[in-house]
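Anyone? Bumping this.
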Amino acid sequence: MVKAVRGFKDILPGEAEKWCYLERLACKYFRAYSFQEIRIPILEKTELFARSIGQATDIVEKEMYTFLDRNKESLTLRPEATAGICRALIEHGLYAKAKVIKLYTIGPMFRHERPQKGRLRQFHQIDAEVFGSHSAGTDAEIILLAWEILTAGGAKGLRMEINSLGCPQCRPRFRDALQEFLEQSKAKLCEDCQRRTQKNPLRALDCKNENCQKLYEKAPLIEDFWCSACREHFLEVQQYLKQWNLVYEINPRLVRGLDYYVRTTFEIKAPQLGAQDTVAAGGRYDGLVKALGGPDIPGIGFAIGIERFLLVAQLPDLTPRLDLYAIPLGKRAYMTLLPVVQNLRQEGLMVELDHEGRSLKALLKQANKLKAKAALILGDNELDQGIVLLRNMETGRQKELPLEPQKELLKRLQQELGAPCDS
RNA sequence: GUGACCGUAGCUCAGUUGGUCAGAGCACCGGGCUGUGGCCCCGGGGAUCGUGGGUUCAAAUCCCACCGGUCACCCCA
């Protein structure tokens, strides 16, 4: 039989409710922070990602779902959301609508990696971006927002790590110094770090090899290279985070896999997740919009991995409770119940109606399994008496309600069943 | 892309040195209770034992390949 593509997973009933819950939770926070939703395509021209994420990154070099369209144009399933949002911002001139634009989107991303815990080929992100602000206050606010969404989802054991990567004024000097350091200790480095020395020296810093980490204790630190503006900015961010009571650690080795990040960068980790422990990450990318052909406006954002969020989230019981199970015994009863059910559903009650003509016993069993609050039983006996039975499924007590007038019946039913669930 | 472990009903798993080994529990459907659920008892449907080769008189069981899963490397959300 045909199975789902490797690394692409179905989100089944029981699981989907959790997704819906977390997405709504995130939307609630975005609203509170005055973000607007944007929905962008999952397919973009390959060039967009090559130019934004960076040609030399792993994502672009070997992880993208890239193919030729029928007209021979190279297209790519988005591996992240920032590039597409920048594109839309520029293409529609959204930056002209206000000095500061705050956007969010939720949806699937695609990267061709070997699947493992917390890592799929189609995965989902809750993504936020702010354009037009250089202020350190914006950095702090974005970090706080990510943290609050995660903690509101009951995520436990989270750690916030922050760092500043410097800017185009100061980072090159650090890069050179680091590269020189790596060259000197080249013989002792692991294979990967030897490779990184040339290609992406910053990445060597978060190598997991113990020997390498030991060596890097003596490596130059970015903080010794920050220009005064970057130093000032980073201190200011921390000042605000403290005022918000956010507990964080400074990780001088924290770097990012995407080229466009500058200055503030952060990761929220949940160590209990194992190898893929970053639940959310983000940072500032001031030169990106310009590099993509837009005006020179700054940006900062983050992404939360929904699958990883779900692994650490503590959710309330989300199993749906049926308000009413309508049980018709015979065609005449069925016909009578149709408009009743229709009406109750229009009022927002969750109502199940049997179309299969199964036995009363079987249907009560079913109602019990679906955790119905009540069952509405109608058979020939009741029809002849002009009544219907409302059975409370918890107590087993039954009430006789007059069938006519229907308006009265509906009113009684709504009284008995209470207000519909909001969800 | 590399490595380790794994792959038997929808789910969780038994299956002894290859020889009634195609099983159990849960779930599902029905009956006991001809119109009253949750407990109990009984019965039923449902599996080309991941796929394809090979060894053998005989393979779920041994060998090879492929596919898939899990975890780790790598990378990252």
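Late reply, but here is one note on the structure posted above: Chain A has a mean pLDDT of 91.
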